[in-house]
Design a protein that fits this description.
336 residues, alpha+beta, Hypothetical Oxidoreductase Yiak, Chain: A, domain 1, Ribosomal Protein S8, Chain: A, domain 1, 2 domains, 11 helices, 12 strands, 40% helix
Length: 336
């Protein structure tokens, strides 16, 4: 049996960048995405880290992602930043407008960035945490290609449509990062590929019935989180991420689960609020006190603390890559 490889986080980023460049991404596109993969691995999110790298590379090769895209930034109003991702990744588009967003929030108290014509953006906490580390409260909304039926329906119409909030703490920021669906698409796809059963609340079959068969769920619909409430969240995200930016709505976007249809042209909206803009002082200290009182109850876990603990462990020990994933990465161009 082949032993697992242990990769440092620096090596993870290098491997991801190498594979993305080999698949047709420019350095401008590959660098930020490789960094996001490093961060996902650091936080223990393999599904959107090295595990998702083959999807990124495959979609670069078939043109769902424009590897040579150059984001275009405009400022239509003092508190607004608009970025056209030009069919590239969302990560370099965000970085292209990040400083303008921060400057606008500092000057106006609140500012928003809209990204249009982008690929899906993976872990939204990667984006919001960067802003919280700069002293801002950040909200982000992103739509995805249709995998989830509206409440009462059977045909996928919404994406998993994630959202995130991050705020300053005394140390690493508070990060809330969730989807409108009961699980992420990659979790369902991975279970189907392995022939594994799934929890009954994850998905519905073609007839709209809960199923533990991942393949039936892939043919049917991912379930919304919390029933009708998750479906309502998905609609809210759709309006904020695609309605405001002019991006494709989820049901208009090409699938993220296959090679057909060209760029999905999705949207993301980020809102940044300057701490103290509404009169409160010492926000980080107040949040720290709030979380301490919350965590005083036995069994309570502060959102984001697990990812911070994972980061500390993986910075010290590296991350483990099994033989199957290592073979896949070699096939994408990585020198392992």
């Amino acid at each position: 049996m082949s032993q697992a490889l242990i990769l440092t986080l620096d090596r993870v980023e290098e491997v991801a960048r190498t594979c993305l460049l080999a698949s047709g991404a420019s350095p401008l596109q590959a660098g930020p995405v490789a960094l996001s993969i490093r961060e996902a691995e650091a936080e223990g999110t393999r599904g959107i880290g090295l595990g998702y790298l083959p999807w990124y590379c495959g979609h670069l090769k078939v043109g769902k992602i424009a590897g040579d895209a150059v984001p275009v930034v405009t400022t239509p109003a003092p508190a607004l930043v608009a970025v056209d991702a030009s069919d590239g990744f969302a990560h370099p588009a965000f970085l292209a407008g990040e400083e303008a967003l921060i400057a606008a929030a500092d000057a106006q108290g609140i500012a928003a960035m809209g990204i249009v014509n982008a690929y899906a953006c993976g872990v939204l906490g990667w984006f919001t945490a960067r802003l919280a580390e700069r002293g801002l409260v950040a909200l982000m909304f992103a739509n995805a290609s249709a995998t989830m039926a509206p409440w009462g329906g059977r045909v996928p119409f919404f994406g998993t449509n994630p959202w995130s909030m991050a705020a300053p703490r005394r140390g690493a920021p508070l990060i809330l990062d969730s989807s409108s669906s009961a699980t992420a698409f990659v979790n369902l796809a991975d279970a189907a590929a392995r022939g594994e059963a799934i929890p009954a609340h994850w998905a519905m079959d073609e007839a709209g019935r809960p199923t533990t068969d991942a393949a039936r769920g892939m043919a049917g619909s991912i379930a919304p989180a919390g029933g009708h409430k998750g479906a309502a969240l998905a609609l809210m995200v759709e309006v904020l991420a695609a309605g405001l930016t002019g991006a494709h709505f989820s049901h208009q976007a090409s699938s993220l689960g296959d090679d057909a249809g060209g760029p999905p042209r999705l949207g993301q909206t980020i809102i940044a609020i300057r701490a103290g803009a509404l009169g409160a002082t010492g926000l980080a200290d107040r949040i720290e006190g709030l979380l301490a009182e919350m965590a005083a109850q036995p069994g309570v876990r502060i959102p984001g603390d697990r990812r911070h603990a994972n980061r500390a462990r993986h910075m010290a020990d590296g991350v483990s890559v099994d033989a199957a994933l290592a073979a896949t990465l070699r096939g994408l161009g990585a020198d392992l």
